[in-house]
TrEMBL record, chain A:
One Pfam family hit: Aldedh
This protein's name: Aldehyde dehydrogenase
PANTHER family hit by this protein: ALDEHYDE DEHYDROGENASE-RELATED
Residue ranges constituting the Aldehyde dehydrogenase domain according to the UniProt record: 32-477
Magnesium in keyword set: no
SUPFAM superfamilies: ALDH-like (SSF53720)
Gene source species: Streptomyces djakartensis
Keywords: Oxidoreductase
UniProtKB/TrEMBL annotation, chain B:
Name of the protein described by the UniProt record: Aldehyde dehydrogenase
Domain Aldehyde dehydrogenase: start-end pairs: 23-254
InterPro entries: Ald_DH/histidinol_DH (IPR016161), Ald_DH_N (IPR016162), Aldehyde_DH_dom (IPR015590)
Stretches that traverse the bilayer: none
PANTHER family assigned to the protein according to its UniProt record, in alphabetical order: ALDEHYDE DEHYDROGENASE-RELATED (PTHR11699)
Length: 478, 294
């Protein structure tokens, strides 16, 4: 990529991680073949290199895993909370110990920069287990009654954008509250969940408390529909979330959904421009924009549009795209060919509908799945690139004149997950934050996460919260 | 008793602060527990349901934006008005549910007390379920509950007044607006409650009351794209499943039917079912080696 600064390659060593040529399903404390004998390959999105061959769970395996989880539930839920806590503290510590290995693994399997897995994903994963560990023996103080009870077997389906972090968001609160779990990682990123199975072994976690079933959408559908699952937690697309809501209709299964978004990042004329530009870049190019809470719509006050876009373009020209294992890389690979196709098609539609496309000069590697940071101007609210979640490094820029107009445009979406506000005026922050229909509002910052901070959506971005005291509710019989 | 013929009341719907008949012009016969005629209640259509949603949406901004203290005062005013109409409700509930005068009086008293209970919640729920989060970084981080929006409420079929208020009050206490489908068999207490609401300080549209066939009215509400949530208390198992499937289309928050003893003091779960959690972050700045960054 053209840049004022040339950097020598600084790759993180791959030798810290040992990926086996094949992995089984993790059921009842053992790795096992899929009943149907099916396997699939997981590739490194930055090189298309095959990393490993993974057993693919079918309906029979789902049944076996749910039975294992049910079998483990009685003892696990009857443990004193203080004992469950210690298992989770152990897991948190082992994750910290193995965090470099897991960061490299995640970068290989997902394609995101090592800078992010090392500095964001892994510290948050460990912190999440550490946080919920402490809740396990304090549930009577959480505001859900004196003795809230676990639900039973939790069926959890997670996405590929933050594989291990989404696992942590699902498994930590489930175990702390005394549930047992069957978790399906995404088909493009199964490895870190399988490494987590090994962490469970090291921690001495009782067999059957955590079961990992790699597979595709049909595996997830079988898990969600299994009659002996008491709780369903899903993070992923809004379309699949709706299908899951239909599947569990009429049952007693408790459901939480964390779905898509089309977050508005609102920049007022008095915003500190340099900080806002960093926030915009972080908002839409963090993890290649494959983030449900991405700030994918930039709403900029008309009077500063020119100045802001100039700064933004200058900043985008300095982003380094390439080898995700390189410590200087800002933009990694798109997770899969399928996702790259989706991004490409939406971007083409944006151009066809009349929006103006811009990218910095940017050389894409020859193999792997890549998409240059992209910015659209002349975007109207009716354009698909302003309405649909692209889930890629693509920013749609719209303008506004008054705060009311900014709020109206920000809320003009089926989604309601995140929003950003940039202004130096405190009362404006509070007034606008109050009116935004979104579950997380970042003011003068963006894409901040913390285990103590509840996360989740309004409207079609889903329901229920993950993180914080609020996150316990999803796994308790309350 | 004199021979004077009593003046009967025409029961009407309550939509947007007005008392229309069903746009369909239809009514159905409502009888007491012994089958004696009580009234012809409006038989609402899907168009009535849609009109009610429009009214509820229109009222949402001001009601959710009112201070919690103000909402508490308004709800308390409702209890005051109910107290004044106590005898009327005792009669209506006795007729509807086949209760003795004294049993009915106990139910009505409990209902009025329930309004008072929820009136007191409006400015406390945010402190109970919200709060500051101790994030690991220089950020102020606050989670607050906010109302979900327009909530369709299928009132319980059996408990026509205490049950109704027990599902309606928690919805509006927190700032939602409601479209209520009254008990199909016993809609009169609900339709009379509307008259109380209209003469309290509850803004028009905050509560809209429809009578008729629960399944007929609930189906368009469950699939309505501008309804944010639905309480299925008054739906049987089969209808509840169909409605939950329809509700998935825009991911409504769904409160499934469950056994409830409406005589018991409720918990906060009927409020939290229709609350969203908003979390707001802001940097706090920090004192670095080179001095202040704030």
């Amino acid at each position: 990529m053209a840049s004022a600064f040339e950097y020598a390659p600084a790759p993180e060593s791959r030798s810290v991680v040992d990926i086996a040529p094949s992995y089984g399903l993790f059921i009842d404390g053992e790795f096992t073949e899929a009943a149907g004998g099916k396997v699939f390959k997981t590739v490194s999105p930055s090189t298309e290199e095959v990393l490993s061959e993974i057993a693919q769970a079918g309906a029979e395996d789902v049944d076996r895993a749910v039975r294992a989880a049910r079998g483990a539930f009685g003892k696990w839920s009857a443990l004193p909370g203080s004992e469950r806590a210690k298992y989770l503290f152990r897991i948190a510590r082992i994750i910290q110990e193995r965090s470099r290995e897991l960061a490299v693994l995640e970068t290989l399997d997902n394609g995101k920069p090592i800078k992010e897995t090392r500095d964001a994903d892994l510290p948050l994963v460990a912190a999440h287990f550490f946080y919920y560990a402490g809740w396990a023996d304090k549930l009577g103080h959480a505001g859900f009654g004196a003795d809230p009870q676990p639900l039973g077997v939790a069926g959890q389906v997670i996405p590929w954008n933050f594989p291990l972090l989404m696992l942590a968001w699902k498994i930590a609160p489930a175990l702390a509250t005394g549930n047992t779990v069957v978790l399906k990682p995404a088909e493009t990123t199964p490895l870190s969940a399988l490494f987590f199975a090994d962490i469970c072994r090291q921690a001495g976690l009782p067999k059957g408390v955590v079961n990992i079933l790699p597979g595709y959408g049909d595996t997830g559908a079988a898990l969600v529909a299994h009659p002996d699952v008491n709780k369903v937690a899903f993070t992923g697309s809004t379309a699949v979330g709706k299908e899951i809501a239909r599947t569990v209709a009429g049952t007693r299964k408790k459901l939480t959904l964390e779905l898509g978004g089309k977050g508005a990042n609102i920049v007022f004329d008095d915003a500190p421009v340099d900080q806002a530009v960093e926030g915009i870049v972080n908002g839409i190019f963090f993890n290649q924009g494959q983030v449900c809470c991405a700030g994918s719509r930039l709403l900029v006050q008309e009077s500063i549009q020119e100045e802001l876009l100039e700064s933004l373009k200058r900043r985008l020209s300095t982003l380094r795209l390439g080898d995700p294992l390189d410590k200087n890389t800002d933009i990694g690979a798109i997770n899969s060919e399928e996702q790259l196709t989706r991004i490409t098609s939406l971007v083409e539609q944006g151009e066809a509908e009349g929006a103006e496309r811009w990218s910095p000069a940017c050389e894409l590697p020859e193999s792997g799945y890549w998409f240059a940071p992209t910015l659209f101007t002349n975007v109207t609210q009716a354009h698909r690139i302003a309405r649909d979640e692209i889930f890629g490094p693509v920013l749609s820029v719209l303008t506004f004149r008054t705060p009311d107009e900014a709020v109206a445009k920000a809320n003009n979406t089926q989604y309601g997950l995140s929003a950003g506000i940039w202004t130096e005026k405190g009362s404006r922050i509070l007034a606008v934050a109050n009116k935004l229909r979104a579950g997380v509002v970042w003011s003068n910052t963006f894409n901040k996460f913390d285990p103590t901070s509840p996360f989740g959506g309004y409207k079609e971005s889903g329901f229920g919260r993950e993180g914080g005291r609020h996150g316990l509710e999803a796994y308790l019989d309350v | 008793m004199s021979d004077r013929l009593t003046v009967l009341k025409t029961y009407k719907l309550y939509v947007g602060g007005k008392f229309p008949r069903s746009e369909s012009g239809r009514v159905y016969e409502v009888t007491d527990a012994k089958g004696r005629w009580l009234a012809n209640a409006p038989l609402s259509s899907r168009k009535d349901a849609r009109d009610a949603v429009v009214a509820a949406r229109k009222a949402f901004g001001a009601w959710s934006g009112a201070t919690a203290y103000n909402r508490g005062q308004v709800l308390y005013r409702v209890a005051e008005m109910l107290e004044g109409r106590r005898d009327q409700f005792v009669r209506e509930v006795a007729d509807a549910e086949g209760l003795s005068k004294s049993r009915s009086a106990a139910v009505v008293d409990a209902t009025i007390d329930r309004w008072v209970w929820y009136a007191g919640w409006t400015d406390k729920i945010a402190q109970v379920v919200g709060g500051g989060n101790p994030v690991a970084g220089p950020f102020f981080n606050l989670s607050s509950p906010e109302p979900t929006g327009v909530v369709a409420v299928l009132a319980p079929q059996e408990s026509s007044f205490l049950g109704l208020v027990s599902v309606l009050a928690p919805v509006i206490a927190t700032g939602n607006t409601a479209v209520v489908v009254a008990s199909e068999k016993s809609p009169l207490p609900a339709l009379s409650l509307a008259e109380v609401l209209a003469t309290s300080d509850v803004p028009g549209g905050v509560v809209n009351v429809l009578s008729g066939r629960t399944a007929e009215i609930a189906t368009p509400l469950a699939s309505h794209q501008d309804v944010n949530a639905i309480d299925l208390a008054g739906a049987d198992e089969e209808l509840a499943k169909d409605l939950e499937i329809a509700a998935a289309d825009n991911l409504k928050r769904v409160l499934r039917p469950q056994p409830v003893d409406y005589a018991e003091t409720p918990g906060i779960d009927r409020m939290t079912a229709f609350l969203e959690t908003k979390t707001v972050w802001h940097p706090t700045g920090s004192l670095g080696a080179s001095g202040s960054s704030y």
